[in-house]
UniProtKB/TrEMBL annotation:
PROSITE patterns: RECR, TOPRIM. It holds the Pfam family Toprim_4. It comes from Altericroceibacterium spongiae. GO terms for molecular function: DNA binding; zinc ion binding. The gene is recR. This is Recombination protein RecR. May play a role in DNA repair. It seems to be involved in an RecBC-independent recombinational process of DNA repair. It may act with RecF and RecO. Keywords: DNA damage, DNA recombination, DNA repair, Metal-binding, Zinc, Zinc-finger. Belongs to the RecR family. The lineage of its organism: Bacteria, Pseudomonadati, Pseudomonadota, Alphaproteobacteria, Sphingomonadales. InterPro entries: DNA_Rcmb_RecR, Rcmb_RecR, Rcmb_RecR_Znf, TOPRIM_dom, TOPRIM_RecR. GO terms for biological process: DNA recombination; DNA repair. It comes from the Bacteria. Residues 79-174 form the Toprim domain. SMART domains: TOPRIM.
């Protein structure tokens, strides 16, 4: 039987994405066995995160400075904004180093089931950024879910009267994907987005 402290730490860790109760207990056991070396490093890293990370007032990214490094970078194309649901999506896209513009983090997606309304997301601040001028293109990079696509359509409707081009990430067949293993939604999107060959 584990002590209350170990159970409490396991319960906290099990709330992290990707960690269930069993994985959390394994992580706690690993930390306890290495408490002289690993635990101080973890505590220092957590304290640094608590003390130094801030949310960017412009785009919603998480960084050690405000505005974030992306918004402050003069080499970034200020005329393009890529709209994403969450900071993790921004980080994934930016790691690929294919988009040279700036970002806008919504902080989620519209969901009637979860009670997430337009005013719960950073859609208003996106509209303000576009109205301020200097933006030529908005790239909607929502996840290929029903809620993600609903959010993209809602944003497109809100932007339709403004002088900005609205584009969306392509969805469909992944490279190396076999038709037999793909879900119906992916196949349907691939068929709708088909284009001429050559």
């Amino acid at each position: 039987m584990a002590s209350q402290e170990i159970e409490a730490l396991s319960a906290v860790l099990s709330r992290l994405p990707g960690l269930g109760p069993r994985s959390a207990r394994r992580a706690v056991l690993w930390l306890v066995k290495r408490r002289e070396t690993a635990l101080p490093q973890l505590l220092d890293a957590l304290a640094a995160v608590r003390d130094t990370l801030v949310e960017c007032d412009i785009c919603g990214n998480i960084d050690t400075q405000n505005p974030c490094g992306i918004c402050a970078d003069p080499r970034r194309d200020q005329r393009q904004i890529c709209v994403v649901e969450d900071v993790s999506d921004l980080w994934a896209l930016d790691r690929a180093r294919l988009f040279t513009g700036r970002y806008h983090v919504l902080g989620g997606r519209l969901s009637a089931l979860e009670g997430v309304r337009p005013e719960d997301l950073a859609i208003g601040s996106l509209i303000e950024r576009v109205r301020a001028g200097g933006i030529d293109e908005i790239v909607l990079a929502m996840n290929a879910t029903l809620e993600g696509q609903t959010t993209a359509h809602y944003i497109a409707e809100r932007l339709e009267d403004l002088p900005v081009r609205i584009t969306q990430l392509a969805h469909g067949l992944p490279v190396g994907g076999e038709l037999d293993y793909l879900d119906e939604g992916t196949l349907a999107q691939a068929l709708r987005a088909r284009r001429p060959l050559g």
